[in-house]
Every structure is written in structure tokens, then in C-alpha cells.
């Protein structure tokens, strides 16, 4: 399938951000931003759950209930992600790597389904990982599914408002190309946050 010319740079940006985050989490090297490789160890369980400040939102065992200011644990399985209905708590709770990675993986998986799948997946059936390996695998699967869904669209679909039926965003009111852009910025900014938390954790160990 021919990739619409205006979609190509967005796909390149997505691929770059995905690869950079994957390397930042798993190692053994990451892209330092200047074309050289920087050694980085794989993310540990301690980092995954590390709470830099009191009152963080995280991923928790369902049996333990939600964390501070959360009213529910989103997702399915033995683990859930701290959440609350709108309006969310203010100021927003600081979130752990576990929370951010779960949120990112869920968003990618659900938007893929609501673009080129069953159009039926919800947060209630989205599994939440209680370990690093499972969380990284879920991210990879979600990113792969989203990229496949984006590659399924033609030029007309890019201009179609509501082409993606994802129910937890502005998708119903936006042309699909704007949603592709939005997903990229979600990956970019959450990827940067995860990288920064890893740096802070490492610096605090000395």
C-alpha cells in the first residue's frame, strides 16, 4: 500500500520515538540524541514502581485497592491503574513509570482497535501489567497494533472526522490525521517523562 505523502513524516516520527523509548527502557544502549549510543541497563522493578514524591498514582494489586486520591483501579486482571472519574484530582497526582507506561500502552491498543479492529475494546478489558517485562511487552504490542492501523488508512481517511472511534479522547471531533499527530505527541512526551524518571532514580542511588 502506498503511504500518503503527508502521513510519511508522522510515521517516521512515531518510529523514532518508539525505538528511542524502547531502547531507553531495555538497553543495552540508547540513542543519546547526537547519533551515538549510550549504555543503559534494563529497567528494574524498583524503577517501575518508584514513587519520587508522596501520593503518586501507580499500578497496584487490585486486592490492595486504589492509591491516594484515586477512586478506582482501571483495567482488568490482578493489577489495575490508579484512576478517578472526571473531574480528575487537582493538582494532578505525580505518576510512576508503571502508571505512564500502562496509560500509553492502553491508549495505543485501544486506538488501534477503534481504527482498524473491532471498534469495541474498552478500558475495562485492558490488562494492566504488574511487572516490567509484561509492561514493556504490552507497549510493544500496542505500538505495533497502532502502526498497523495507521498503515491501513488512505488519504481520504486522513481527512475523515471521527474515523477513529476511540471513546476516551477528541477522536469523534477530529480528522484522523490530527489523531495520528496526537498519538505521536503522547508517545513523545510520556517517553520523555519515563526517561527522566529513570535518570532521577539512577542519580538518587549514588
Strand order of the largest sheet: 3-5-4
Q: Which stretches are low in confidence, meaning pLDDT under 50 for 5 or more residues running?
A: none
Task: Quickly give the structural class.
Answer: mainly alpha
Order of helices and strands: HEEHEEEHHHH
Determine Rg (CA atoms, Å). 17 Å
Task: Give the CATH topology.
Answer: Four Helix Bundle (Hemerythrin (Met), subunit A)
The span between the termini is 51 Å
Q: Estimate what percentage of residues fall within beta strands.
A: 5-15%
Global morphology: globular
What tags apply to this protein structure?
206 residues, mainly alpha, Four Helix Bundle (Hemerythrin (Met), subunit A), 3-stranded antiparallel beta sheet, two-stranded antiparallel sheet, 6 helices, 5 strands
Q: Describe it for me?
A:
It is a single chain. By secondary structure, the protein is mainly alpha-helical. The protein has one domain (8-54, 96-204): Four Helix Bundle (Hemerythrin (Met), subunit A). 47% of the residues lie in helices and 8% in strands. It has a three-stranded antiparallel sheet. Helix 1 runs antiparallel to helix 4, helix 1 runs parallel beside helix 6 and helix 3 (97-116) packs parallel to helix 4 (132-151). The protein starts with 7 loop residues before the first helix and ends with a helix. The mean pLDDT is 94.
